[in-house]
Amino acid sequence: MNQHFHKKAVKIDIGDGAAIPVKKDAGLFTAWWMTFFGAIAVIVYLCVTQPEPYWRVLKFLPDGVYVTFQVTILSILLSLVLGLITGLGRLSRNKVVNLIASTYVEIIRGIPLLVQLFYIYYALGRLEFFKDLPPMAAAVAAMGICYGAYMGEVFRAGIDSIDKGQSEASRSLGFNRAQTMMYVILPQAWRTILPPVGNEFIALLKDSSLVSVLAVADLMRRGREFASESFLYFEAYTMVALVYLVITLFLSKGVSKMEQRLNYYERD
Question: What is the rounded CA–CA span in Å between residue 110 and residue 113?
Fold first, then answer.
């Protein structure tokens, strides 16, 4: 008997190792449109009607935006490398490798990111080997290691989603396990892995505001510096929040477009 199964498009949100199906919101584009351009309109309105201090705050922030992206990109690259190694380790048949990868995931996911930042910069900074560790390097290391654990679960889930028959077919063609993973499994798994990686990139960008505690001159740090100098806390943090909102909304739309281009759900 022939059966036809109609598959509804859902978005898989992977957080803390759990895959949660989320129905696509028909009004999502309208909400994004209103929020994104509304935030830009508020920034323009404040800078035009009250250039002192809002325009002065806005001119004070570009250096922080650059540093924020620098920290985010370096951290996401490190986390991708660690995530791939961890994901493969979690799927390894070698019990020692599997145990090490699983222990890394459990430890890192159990410690808040802020604690990891303090530990790497201040605690390890007392050791001779890490004595001259720059704040930027400590921030990238902490965020890369933290998100590497979450990326490991993304890679594990993506690789595990590939049908076992793909591995059996490649092995029957004479591929070893490494070749099968490199040339058959990973290229197919990327279509499933990329959207969650994009979401993790946005989450990492927002969490990068924590690196300001290490005196890294990111967007949040620049806002704090302006507020401490002028005592205009409301104005400074309002502008910082609006800039973060515009950046994250813009990137979220990019991730959404990427998901549509990948088209990793079957069409009727």
Answer: 9
Helix (H, G, I), strand (E, B) or coil at 13: strand
> What is the signed CA dihedral for 180, 183, 189, 190, rounded to 10 degrees?
160
201-218 pLDDT tens trace:
999 999 999 999 998 999
Residue 119: closest CA among 106, 133, 105: 133
Kind and range of the H or E element at 228? helix 219-230
Q: By the 8 A CB rule, do 125 and 170 touch?
A: no
Give the N- to C-terminal CA distance of the chain in Å, as an integer: 19
> Taking Cα atoms as reference points, which of 70, 93, 77 lies closest to residue 151?
77
pTM for the whole structure: 0.82
Positive or negative torsion for Cα 201, 202, 203, 206 = positive
CA-derived radius of gyration, the chain? 22
Cβ density class 9-36: b for 16+ within 10 Å, e for less: eebbebeeeeeeeeeeeeeeeeebeeeb
